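Sanity check

After download, print the first record. It should look like this:
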Amino acid sequence: MHFAPLIAATALALIAATANAADPLQAQVDEIIRPLMHDQDIAGMAVGLYVNGQAHYFSYGVASKADNKPVTADTLFEIGSLSKTYTATLAALASAEGKLDLDAPAQRYQPALAGTSLGKASVLELGAYSADCLPLQFPDTVQTDEQALEFFRTWKPRAEHGTQRCYSNPSLGLFGDLAARAQQQPFAELMTKSLLPQMGLKHTYLQVPASAQGLYAQGYDAQNRPVHVSPGPYADEAYAIKTSASDLLRYVRLHMQPAELSPALRNAAAITQAGYFQVGAMTQGLGWERYPYPAALETLVDGNGSRMVREPQATQRLNPTRPALPQAWYNKTGATGGFGAYAAFIPAEGKAIVLLANRNYPNEERVRAAYRILSSIDR
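Expected structure tokens:
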């Protein structure tokens, strides 16, 4: 009988048990994340947690099955539609600086839309997916920005502006494009050379540079084939951010606790978290979506489920706009073909969480995991 492997396994188990006993927070997160990864067949995950004024990071599995490189807090993941909160922050900063009027019609900043249905929609309505029930994605025939503009120009009205929320990459993409046009600078330049540096985000990219490629995780699709995101029209504005758990947690924390930001950026954070439209239990901000806190788990699950992504929802414009609230649960999901992400924060409790995975798994499972982790931690 060979005892060496048994002894080694026992020793590792004892080490893990001792580590978990010494770090109950690690044990709490492990208990939730490890079964999630097993059930959803996720190769690697990074979790960032901010509680009691401290940042904590937990890494699981591998960034790539090809070389078994372990995930770390610096591993880069695609975050898909969580990128929309960055675009919203960029637009909100332009608004705070008096460079962008969120209530202005789109045609003010894109004259090519003059006289069209979407040209009359406000910048804000486009940013809140409430302009005119645009589709979730562009049609396959739309491959360039020029074709996207023609798609917008010939769009046939479906609903009165501000009455239906239809979650839409084209809507948010046009919103970001208008914010850049208002400042007469390319969107990518504003994001990478202005907003990200101002927030101290040194490992967040639209395009991962050669120097950081070694940190870029490999994504895996539903058939476990290796994939990375394929850029399309307005990708930078809608879903192109790649970032690490450490940078993403910093970004979320600064939205929750913006005191160290410049006055304009503090104002921008408040603009993104304000309530502009009511959609059932969810209040739509710019990028961020919020719920009264404490929030029931099933309310959060429903609000982040496929129904909200794929079906039109009746919406009501809040007039006056509801200010940002500390007693609220703010969140946003994001995914690409090979990655799944989620971020949430509760200003009143000073808690924030980010989940990054190199597989796209159901939004509902992300919400449940985050809720369980945050609920298990005392203030």
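If your output differs, re-run the checksum step. Summary of this record's structure: Confidence is low (pLDDT under 50) at residues 1-21.
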